[in-house]
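Subject line: Sequence and fold of a protein, written as structure tokens
Area: Proteins and the way their chains fold up in space.
Start of record: The labelled sequence and token lines come straight after this line.
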Amino acid sequence: MNADIFPFLQAPNWTKCRAGCLAETFFDLHSNDADCNEWLGDSVFSGPLPFRGIGLIGLADDEGVRLNNGRPGARDGPRAIRQALANYGQASCIGLLNTERGTALRIVDAGDLIPGRDLTETHDRVTASVRSLLELGLLPIGVGGGHDLTFPLVRAVAAAMEGALHGVYFDAHLDVRESLGSGMPFRRIIEHCNVASLHCLGMNRFANSADHVAWFLSHHGHLETFSAADWPGDENQFVSIDLDVLDVCHAPGVSAVNPAGLSASTLADYAVSAGRCSNVGCFDIMELCPTHDEDGRTARVAAHLLLCFISGCQQRGRNA
């Protein structure tokens, strides 16, 4: 079976998809008997690695959030995003058409993470699973889930790249704590992934300590903002979105609400630009907490951001 190469992932939890929606075109590794390699074919689109399609992985764990005393529930984030996707996004929508490419990008759903006995084992399982996605030629997109899980996702991608890593993340918090939990991913990425630069956009100046800011700035960190139209051209990039960068009116269902964050439309423009950039090798959308999500509003925004990134990828050229 296709799923045999992903021992730490279980079948994704999908609700019934609306007829004609984009999610109907996804290749489910756990229920599709066709060979995934044959289904993907030989088409390769531009990227720092040879990508043949998109690989969706549900990072269904929030132990890191609990360790940092955040609101639990983000373990159900992947399910909520899939539920939103089941009713949003047309398979033939103009946002995902590319006449130059001729066909839409292939999207594979690899399923949801089975957490380990502790956070370290869970992180190792994420890294192993993302490594398998890369071996299939898939650009990893993580949805979750505690933001600490960005570290093991990026760790796998960084190991497959040649040269230093450059990151852009959207977050109300710098997440450079020393202690284990959802507030530490970018400190670990800096310490273990050969980072040359790291840009944080949307930081809340009242929600970060002076010590954390000083550490970040002294370790290749940058707080200068840039517009979506001026996306950096650095090689070997990763991009991460913590949904708490959004204003609470757009995203009530997060682990830590933001009283004065970005608008959904602003963040969507950045997501398109990130997808369009051929140097971006992975992407994630984290900290969706369905327990506190009124009418699924935040999940709908997360689904929109995911489609925006994919639409940007669709605009990339082909590798030779």
